[in-house]
Design brief:
The strands form 5 sheets. Strands 4-5-1-6-8-9-10-13-14 form a 9-stranded mixed beta sheet, sandwiched between helices. A 4-stranded parallel beta sheet has the order 16-17-18-19, with helices on both faces. The protein has 4 domains: 44-274, 3-Layer(aba) Sandwich (Rossmann fold); 282-398, Rossmann fold (3-Layer(aba) Sandwich); 415-531, Serine Threonine Protein Phosphatase 5, Tetratricopeptide repeat; 540-630, Serine Threonine Protein Phosphatase 5, Tetratricopeptide repeat (Alpha Horseshoe), CATH 1.25.40. Helices cover 38% and strands 13% of the residues. With 649 residues, it is an alpha/beta fold. The structure holds aspartic acid (ASP).
């Protein structure tokens, strides 16, 4: 019985669905924007709340049974979610606004440190994922880009059939991703009693909101898989996805276990960006023993630009079929990129047989252990990079760009590893390899933090080569990046970012490395972190309160730090007061001078009693301030990387 039939059968058995009735009303498109602006309300607190944007593209998870088939039903899911107490805490939601339409959805307490607030953006039309194309991938990528700073993570509700393709494509299209993007769906619609959709959805929300896994993943049946390693393996079991060449990144059981070592660490972080120029002239060619040369030649004709060649075993092809090999050679000479991946779902392409060598000699690039979905997506992405020439594109296919292939790492034992950890192990009488691994996990974070504090990049390098994960925090959640930012260690910050540090990691008080750099006025570090994509996470109103406090104390460097970190210095605090007005009231002359150079609206803005900064200075009879406020200099341009760092405005 295939899945459609089994679902139909099941539907008949489960006529009494938990949710009945029609949608209450159609959501208007600007509602999401209005809802997001509620985030800036007084009650939203980033230390207590995690924000997740749900992009609902379609798929079985939201389908209804109509005219003898499952099809997506527009404007249905959100109203249904609101009626499930496991998916929405309606009384908590009223804290944010009494307007039911503008309230966030609130995931009831699930014993995580933060409460998850989520918003659903429903696509029009909703699609069965078999109808999805690169255009839909681009829409998703753009939506994530547009809302990147407003959310801690993203969940994509998607049909299972092409979920691995979308996950693979997004993993390449979303460049320098620093936040979780988790695709999920279900085998049975969420409205039905036996649905797997509720568990999948809740797990994805929790992982996207509370776990800093900056990757595109698939969450299904209690497993979090790297998206570009995943593949749909079963069309009727709940355990529908697997990543045959990689263990799950996390498993959701009574506790949530995250294998932090397996999280992809990029070599360099830049600002988050997205690429949509995915080349569509790519295809899969699966060898079989009597394939004809004319089929192969026909397949490789223009306009094909990239081919995923599925070969036998460890990457073997018919070395004695000169006609076929000639066709391959002729295509690669024309600039067609051909990647060799195995027809076996497990294992690596390894040209150690003559038959594998023959393909290599035709210019075919070994695809290591990539899935066909990842290889296709990588080809589309690499071919779309107009700034790379043919040789660079070939080199990029071989490289591990997003964790899509396994690169063998030689593990050298360093002095630290051999001496210190083993000495401790001996004293503690640690003998088994499991105990030894546990000991390393406990000791490495302290060693990393220590080495960071003393600015020793050499020690950090040696710890890394011994297998330590430089992203992991100590008992306070302080990561090496936090410490380096606090202490103004510019080179260490650069080293950590180049080695995959997580710029959004929070310590136990919710502070990121950027918050620390601001609190200690580390201008250069703020610039580096901003260039790597970091941004402030506090609500604008809360930042404005800090700005006012800072202005009152005339701490002009702190104002500069906030400015370089991307804060809006025109923002009003809870009382409708701006930093400039506060600076005037407290006669903070250097702050007033700085603020008039960078502020826009607050220069003429009235507070609740009708005072502008100038009228306030006049009332205070402060001639110096009146002079400064009536001689506004031209605005300093905020640079891409976080502002003008040298000199003051
Ligand atoms: N045909 C559906 C889709 O991919 C299957 C599913 O969601 O499970 O949209």
């Amino acid at each position: 019985m295939d899945k459609e039939t089994s679902n139909a059968e099941l539907h008949k058995e489960t006529q009494t669905t938990e949710v009945v009735g029609k949608p209450e009303r159609k959501r208007h498109p600007s509602m999401l924007e209005e809802q997001i602006s509620i985030f800036n309300s007084l009650e939203y607190d980033p230390q207590k709340h995690a924000r997740v944007l749900v992009l609902y593209t379609g798929g079985t998870i939201g389908m209804c049974w109509k005219n003898g088939a499952y099809c997506p039903e527009p404007n249905f899911l959100v109203d249904a979610i609101k009626r499930y107490p496991h998916l929405h805490d309606s009384s908590y939601a009223t804290v944010f606004t009494p307007d039911v339409d503008l309230q966030p959805l609130v995931l009831p307490d699930c014993h995580e440190p933060k409460t998850i607030l989520y918003y659903v953006k429903e696509y029009d039309p909703l699609l069965d994922s078999s109808n999805m194309t690169a255009e839909e991938w681009s829409n998703i990528a753009k939506d994530i880009y547009d809302q990147y700073e407003a959310f801690d993570g993203f969940v994509i509700l998607h049909g299972t059939d092409t979920m691995s393709y979308t996950a693979s494509a997004l993993s390449f299209m979303l460049e320098n991703l620093g936040k979780p993007v988790i695709l999920t769906g279900s085998q049975i619609p969420i409205f039905e009693v036996r649905s797997d959709g509720r568990d999948n959805f809740i797990g994805a929300l929790v992982l996207a909101g509370c776990y800093k896994i900056p990757e595109v993943c698939i969450y299904f049946n209690h497993k979090l898989l790297r998206g570009n390693r995943s593949t749909k393996v079963d069309n009727s079991a709940f355990d529908a996805f697997d990543s045959p060449n990689m263990k799950p990144i996390a498993s959701v059981e009574i506790k949530i276990y995250v294998d932090t070592d397996s999280i992809f660490r990029p070599h360099k972080l830049n600002k988050f960006a997205f690429m949509t120029n995915m080349i569509q002239n790519v295809a899969v060619l699966r060898l079989f023993p009597s394939i004809t040369a004319s089929t192969v030649k026909y397949f490789l004709r223009d306009p094909i630009a990239g081919v995923v060649l599925q070969t036998y075993g460890a990457g073997n092809g018919p070395q004695k079929r000169k006609d076929i090999l000639d066709a391959f050679r002729e295509a690669t000479d024309r600039g067609v990129l051909i990647i060799n991946i195995s027809q076996c779902s497990r294992g690596v392409v390894n040209p150690s047989y003559e038959t594998g060598q023959a393909l290599l000699e035709c210019g075919i690039i070994p695809g290591h252990d990539m899935t066909p979905e990842a290889a296709l997506a990588k080809l589309s992405y690499v071919l779309g990079k107009t700034e790379w020439d043919y040789q660079q594109k070939r080199a990029m296919i071989l490289q591990n760009l997003r964790g899509e292939l396994t690169v063998k790492q030689s593990r050298q034992l360093s002095i630290i590893d051999a001496d210190l950890i083993e000495a401790v192990a001996q004293v503690m009488q640690v003998s088994s390899s499991e105990e030894m691994a546990a000991l390393r996990r406990v000791l490495y974070p302290s060693l990393i933090c220590n080495a960071t504090r003393s600015g020793s990049i050499a020690t950090l390098e040696s710890l890394k080569s011994a297998g330590a994960n430089l992203r992991v925090g100590d008992y306070d959640g302080n990561t090496a990046l936090h410490i380096a930012a606090t202490n103004g260690l510019v080179d260490v910050v650069k080293f950590l970012i180049d080695n995959g540090a997580n710029i959004f990691a929070e310590d136990q008080w919710g502070y990121t490395a950027l918050d620390n750099a601001v609190r200690f006025d580390r201008f250069e570090i703020i610039r580096i972190l901003r260039a790597a994509g970091a941004h402030l996470k506090q609500s604008p109103t809360k930042i404005a309160s800090e700005l006012c406090y800072t202005a009152a104390k005339d701490e002009v460097d702190r104002l500069r730090s906030f400015y370089f970190a991307g804060a809006n210095l025109d923002q009003e605090d809870y009382n409708g007061c701006t930093a400039l007005l506060t600076a005037v009231r407290h006669r903070s002359v250097s702050c007033v001078k700085f603020l008039v150079g960078v502020c826009e609206s607050s220069i003429s803005q009235k507070d609740r009693c009708g005072f502008t900064p100038y009228s306030e200075a006049e009332r205070m009879k402060d001639k110096d301030l009146m002079y400064i406020l009536s001689h506004i200099p031209p605005k300093i341009k905020q640079t891409e990387s976080g502002g003008k760092l040298n000199g003051s405005p």
